[in-house]
Amino acid sequence: xxxxxxxxxxxxxxxxxxxxxxxxxxxxxxxxxxxxxxxxxxxxxxxxxxxxxxxxxxxxxxxxxxxxxxxxxxxxxxxxxxxxxxxxxxxxxxxxxxxxxxxxxxxxxxxxxxxxxxxxxxxxxxxxxxxxxxxxxxxxxxxxxxxxxxxxxxxxxxxxxxxxxxxxxxxxxxxxxxxxxxxxxxxxxxxxxxxxxxxxxxxxxxxxxxxxxxxxxxxxxxxxxxxxxxxxxxxxxxxxxxxxxxxxxxxxxxxxxxxxxxxxxxxxxxxxxxxxxxxxxxxxxxxxxxxxxxxxxxxxxxxxxxxxxxxxxxxxxxxxxxxxxxxxxxxxxxxxxxxxxxxxxxxxxxxxxxxxxxxxxxxxxxxxxxxxxxxxxxxxxxxxxxxxxxxxxxxxxxxxxxxxxxxxxxxxxxxxxxxxxxxxxxxxx
Length: 429
Known about the structure:
Order of helices and strands: HEEEEEHHHEEEHHEHEHHEEHHHHHEEHH
Largest sheet: 5 strands, mixed
Number of strands: 14
Distance between the termini: 34 Å
Radius of gyration: 32 Å
Structural class: alpha+beta
């Protein structure tokens, strides 16, 4: 019977040390009273081996092997006294260290649970029947991740840290190939980031061949200052995003001509209704659209071909803008590094002469970031350079912060992100 209880409590490593074990179940709590066998000890002060029992003490240890029921080990141990130097000493605790009130088994399980980016310190504390502060203290004591070495291909992006922090945005650097976080800085301010990176040796910084960023000029300045051999690549998603924002502005401007409240109404409000209800048709990849859609106002269905044709027939300017945007999307999907420059120059020329003034900003963007856009077509191990991996990381970081309702201490947030998202982050004992 005692063997089964020992296995149930995951105390197999203590089997040879336990003299007696009694389990008492009281309501929603389990108490395990353990008497340890007397240990053969040597006096740590004088080295004598002639010791006798001076007194007995008990120690209560949280041992949440069953997370549905609070489990507590009540360990009775001896205080032994050296007959030579008269000093006293306690027997060793095989469950935890002398000062800790949580078993080593429970500590490991708590730290394992914190690997889940959706779990908060409070949720883990409730799961293992300990206080939230105990979980935080355990995390702070045992999770101390260090910066990873700089790699050849870096992703660089920011995430919002909230109003409680000194800086609203923090900077993340990620290994493009291994998809691991390299470092997190508490700000994206150019000079501060440069000062931090200068603390890394020039030899290590010279290893970086390319850095992928969104279109933030400060990042380009950081890269040019700190990574002497690196080129800059712009994430293609952000280029498409700017074009979709321009298309959105064009659609809204044109649709307002058909709105009933407008004094110079050009037609009935059906055009306005269709452009507003099916706004996503002009920005979503055509292949990702459903095959047909219901038009509630007409109580009928349109295929996606007919619906797109209808939307583009409303205005020639909208049709021309959509086709130009789709031409760039096709270029973005099919071009390669060696041949993209000529095609990109042609598209820049078309945006420059577009009749839609909203595309003037797109033209300037393409012109200013032409070389960086071209670099984005470089492939590493058959993968095009992009910030896709770090965008996924940012999504999980948002979940970590949202679940916890924010973090007051940035260093704790940094360590939680490292520990949760870099799965091989070691635990310090």
